[in-house]
Amino acid sequence: MNVLLNRSGAIYERAHENEDRGRSLSCISTRDLSLYYGTKAAFKGVNLSIKPGSITAVVGPSGCGKSSFLLSLNRLAELIPGCRVKGIVQIGEHDIFDPDTDLTSLRLSMGMIFQKPNPFPLSIKENITLPLKEHGTVGKNELDARVENVLKEVGLWDEVRDRLHTPALSLSGGQQQRLCFARTLALEPKVLLLDEPCSALDPLSSSIVEDLITELRGKYTIIIVTHNLPQARRIADYIAFFWVRDNVGTLIEYGATEQVFNEPENELTEAYIKGIRG
């Protein structure tokens, strides 16, 4: 079994250099992946191979299965009543649907950020230390160091260092979202699943979070769902374009960002990129 899925709640030591970190990441691949809500298919037959350390943007119109695809990658979709997933998701050589997969370890390794910032109704510091304590980090010095390190990583340390014990909900929307990034990064995932992380933010906050995502390139494998095509073009290395065909989400095209934007292989992709459809 891939080491990524055998953590048993332990926190891995983070590599100090992006290059070293990138080499430790595994490819994520899907084969004939489909997801159903009851008898209704959200998407069907998705085949993808996502390169380690890259940023992949999943784009397409509403209702084409983008967010459902994201939820299938760390098996969060299984928590939705009536939801079932078929196919294969591999991280390295390991199929995440293998009965021996430790779901807690899987979800620790694939951190998720949602559309709307969702800090805990606790202090700024406790938002980071609570999950760390839940997963075995209890020493005060280690907790303090981890809090400082991740807040620096998301560019929040200088803004909140003197008010770590104030409520997280007192932060601005953009700061709350960066705190959610910090909370996720504290658990040292290898993959970041981002479901429209800027959609609830004002343009300035969105720009700051976008810059943060690009700074994380190479440290993590990042998959981001976004409706914002200019954003996808700015930050992504690869584009996965989904569409609704016969009322089912379908992967239409996957390729390097500039190739998809400048020389799309599919007419639907070209129409969507140009704003003619979608």
Topology:
Blueprint: H1 18-24, E1 28-37, E2 40-50, E3 55-59, H2 66-73, E4 83-91, E5 94-95, H3 103-109, E6 110-113, H4 124-134, H5 140-153, H6 157-160, H7 173-185, E7 191-195, H8 203-215, E8 221-225, H9 229-235, E9 238-245, E10 248-256, H10 257-262, H11 267-273
Helix pairs in contact: 4-5, 4-7, 5-7, 7-8
Characteristics:
four-stranded antiparallel sheet, disordered N terminus, six-stranded mixed sheet, 278 residues, alpha/beta, 11 helices
Structure description:
The structure is a single chain. This protein is about 35% helix and about 25% strand. The protein has a six-stranded mixed beta sheet with strand order 6-7-8-3-9-10, sandwiched between helices. A four-stranded antiparallel beta sheet has the order 2-1-4-5, covered by helices on one side. The chain has about 280 residues and is α/β, with parallel strands linked by helices. It contains eleven helices and ten strands. It starts with 17 loop residues before the first helix and ends in a 5-residue tail after the last helix. The longest helix is centred in the middle third of the chain and has 14 residues, at about 140-155. About 40% of the residues are buried. Strand 4 (about 85-90) and strand 5 (about 95) form a beta hairpin. The chain has helices spanning about 20-25, 65-75, 105-110, 125-135, 140-155, 155-160, 175-185, 205-215, 230-235, 255-260, 265-275; strands at about 30-35, 40-50, 55-60, 85-90, 95, 110-115, 190-195, 220-225, 240-245, 250-255.
